[in-house]
Amino acid sequence: MQAAVFRGVGDLAVEQRPVPQPAAGEVLVQVMACGICGTDRHIFHGDFETRPPVVIGHEYAGRIAAVGPLVTELHVGDRVAVDPNIYCGKCGPCRRGQIHMCRNLVALGVDIDGGFAEYSLVPVSQCFALPESVTFLEGAMAEPLACCVHGMDLAGVRSGDTVAVIGAGAIGQIMAQLARLQGAGRVLVSDPSPARRELALSLGADEVIDPLQEDPTRPGGRLEQGAHVVIEAVGSAVTNAQAVEWAAPAATVLWFGVTPPEQRVSVSPNLVFQKELTIRGARINPYTHARALALLGSGRLTVTPLITQRATLDQLPGLLTTGPGDHPKTVILPNGPLES
Ligand SMILES: [Zn+2]
Ligand SMILES: [Zn+2]
């Protein structure tokens, strides 16, 4: 089979490998769709540590091609989405219910071989059956959606709130939709890209902001009163600081975009005091994968328009080098084109 192997910083190669055999408790997934995530780019560029050689790709869905001994929950042919984050269940955080803080966390596509391959070995506990109406492409979005669902739980949007989402990539577009489903009174999305702003409007955002042209907090501006929840979905120092500036009194600021570890943000503690702000983070997807799939199955949330580019495994090294461009989400199809 073909597999995209991360071999060191800036070095990703599509290699020929034998199809692995599932051990007890494992299944072999034929990968039908695997999304490119910011994390893949960070790994490729050496911002995140991982131990090469490893097949990267952690946002994937596919069909069960084989099951190992002791697997009774799933059968050959079943369609599944994969939760890549494997918890130990034994460490201190795991025993306190904080599995996403697991000290021995191992992630498919980061620490061990993942989804940028024709086939992937997955523990059966990490597989979630796709609802019938959910396509493989949508299934590949289950992981980022599950992370957003956790973030939205922590952001605490209340009915009627004004919610500002900074960044209209795939995450921002999902967050804006989730805010609306939470009952937000007004959802504003900020992004310098006209195409992304258009997409946000088409997916239900009430207003969009070009942050290079407009300061919404100026007198008479659209966020003069601030937003009750601000969701930062970029991960840059500028937008992290902006999120605090845009917050209303007593607001929650969610710093959701992943930043490089050395990044620092300049924030006025006095502003946090004066406005009594809550600034918080959200880490991966504890117990939210099933909810993400339920949402996809409901049709209340739309992810397919976010996938503006489909590519082959061979194209992956080039795509990681050039960056996402204007594409909110690029999905690799390791087993060739899909019907939908
Ligand atoms: Zn991801
Ligand atoms: Zn643990």
Pick out its properties.
340 residues, alpha/beta, Quinone Oxidoreductase, Chain A, domain 1, Rossmann fold, seven-stranded mixed sheet, six-stranded parallel sheet, 18 strands
Provide a descriptive summary of the structure in words.
- By secondary structure, this protein is an alpha/beta fold.
- The chain folds into two domains: 2-141 and 303-332, Quinone Oxidoreductase, Chain A, domain 1 (Alpha-Beta Complex); 147-281, NAD(P)-binding Rossmann-like Domain (Rossmann fold, 3-Layer(aba) Sandwich).
- It has helices at 38-45, 92-95, 136-139, 142-155, 170-181, 194-202, 237-245, 269-275, 289-298, 316-322; strands at 2-8, 11-16, 26-35, 54-55, 59-67, 79-82, 85-86, 106-107, 119-123, 127-129, 162-166, 186-190, 207-209, 227-232, 247-255, 278-281, 307-311, 329-332.
- The strands form four sheets. Strands 3, 5, 6, 9, 10, 17 and 18 form a seven-stranded mixed sheet that branches. Strands 13-12-11-14-15-16 form a six-stranded parallel sheet, with helices on both faces. A three-stranded antiparallel sheet has the order 2-1-4, with no helix packed on it.
- Strand 1 and strand 2 form a beta hairpin.
- Helix 4 packs across helix 9.
- The longest helix is centred in the middle third of the chain and has 14 residues, at 142-155.
- It is globular.
